[in-house]
Design brief:
344 residues; mainly alpha; 14 helices; 3 strands; 54% helix; globular; binds tryptophanyl-5'AMP
Length: 344
């Protein structure tokens, strides 16, 4: 059985963009493949602490699982393994071993590192090193598919390079994850922006050139999963559009309207093609926005009810089961690596 593996950091409250762009596609993927693949969904809590944490880390971890469950992830399925990274010590241990095959040069070229550190001397070393930890996350489970957004593709390439270099130096130990082109092809079924296979990028409601981001100062630019459904609807009504006067999917010339079409498709479970066809010829942006606002209001109300419904015991039981599984697999692979290096 091949393994699909992924994780989302939870540094605080998530946006509708995180949900529709990453979490929901991931859950759909898990549901599609759970009978034929191992699906590892983990909480990268060690990654989380490279940045400030809003609120309580434990509470955020539980909440993230509640979000997965509300989005439809089957926490009790035998092929779905849910675990917290820090509860599987092999991740940190393999990270150290891989650190000794990674080079300063390649790590310094990581775009995420450059963006997050902004050249500051005061940036923490975790920001520099976390792609190596991510490689350990992947290689410990011989994961083939790692569904992530495009911003993380460089880290998958790094995991492949480190595995290859390690195998070359110490003998065959790690299986390489699929190339980014293969990853993209695997995720293709989930893409709504045509060729951009790495999923959906939900845009900022006030400035649709940018992605919807939690860190945006303007409250109206983002919908938080904790917003009341009515205020979320009001934010949709206030979203920036354009002066073209036609409802059509054209990310380049009409990013605002295209974003609303994506949101409508994802919140109603429809395809982008079908919602685009339904509104083809619509010239009244107010009427169109009202439909999107209604869909978001219904979706969020339903989602929030489901979030409240998942009991903590169910989540904790999933963690306990998943962590016992993950420790078994990870320990064995770590031992292979330790033996190869000569530590055991
Ligand atoms: P993180 O937590 O920053 O992001 C989680 C996932 O969300 C994707 N993403 C988006 N996708 C679409 N539209 C957006 N606006 C958007 N913003 C973020 C990211 O690409 C990512 O897939 N290092 C990882 C977490 C991680 C991981 C792993 C993932 C740690 N170890 C091993 C996979 C496998 C991270 O910080 O993602």
């Amino acid at each position: 059985m091949e393994t699909i593996l992924t994780g989302i950091r939870v540094n605080g409250e998530l946006t509708l963009g995180n949900l529709l762009g990453a979490l929901l596609p991931m859950v759909r993927l898990a549901e599609k493949y759970k009978s034929t693949h191992r699906v590892n969904v983990f909480v990268p809590d060690l990654h989380t602490i490279i940045a400030d944490v809003d609120g309580d880390l434990q509470a955020n971890t539980l909440k993230s699982l509640r979000y997965y469950a509300a989005a439809g992830l089957d926490l009790a399925h035998e092929n779905i393994h849910i675990y917290r990274q820090s509860y599987v010590p092999a991740h940190s241990e393999l990270c150290w071993i891989l650190d000794t095959v990674a080079t300063m040069g390649e790590m310094g070229r990581m775009t995420q590192f450059k963006e997050k550190s902004e050249g500051r001397d005061s940036a923490n070393v975790g920001i520099f090193n976390y792609p190596v930890l991510m490689a350990a996350d992947i290689l410990l489970y011989s994961a083939k598919y790692v569904p992530v957004g495009e911003d993380q593709f460089q880290h998958i390439e790094l995991a492949r390079n480190l595995a290859e270099r390690f195998n070359h130096k110490y003998g065959p130990t790690f299986e390489l994850p699929a190339t980014t082109a293969e990853q993209a092809a695997f995720m293709q079924g989930l893409a709504v922006e045509g060729k951009k296979a790495a999923g959906i990028r939900i845009r900022d409601l006030q400035n649709p050139e940018k992605k919807m981001s939690k860190s945006s100062q303007a409250e109206n630019s983002k919908i938080m999963l904790s917003d009341t459904p009515a205020s979320a609807a009001a934010k949709i009504m206030g979203a920036t559009t354009d002066s073209v006067g036609k409802v059509q999917f054209d990310m380049f010339n009409q990013p605002g309207i295209s974003n609303l079409l994506s949101i409508l498709a994802l919140t109603t479970g429809d395809t982008l093609e079908s919602v685009s066809a339904r509104y083809a010829g619509e010239t009244n942006y107010g009427d169109f926005k009202r439909k999107v606002a209604e869909a978001v209001e219904l979706f969020l109300a339903d989602f929030q009810v489901k979030v409240a419904q998942t009991p903590d015991q169910e989540i904790l039981a999933a963690f306990t089961r998943g962590e016992s599984y993950a420790n078994e697999i990870a320990k064995t692979k770590l031992l292979d690596a330790q033996r190869a290096v000569g530590l055991r």
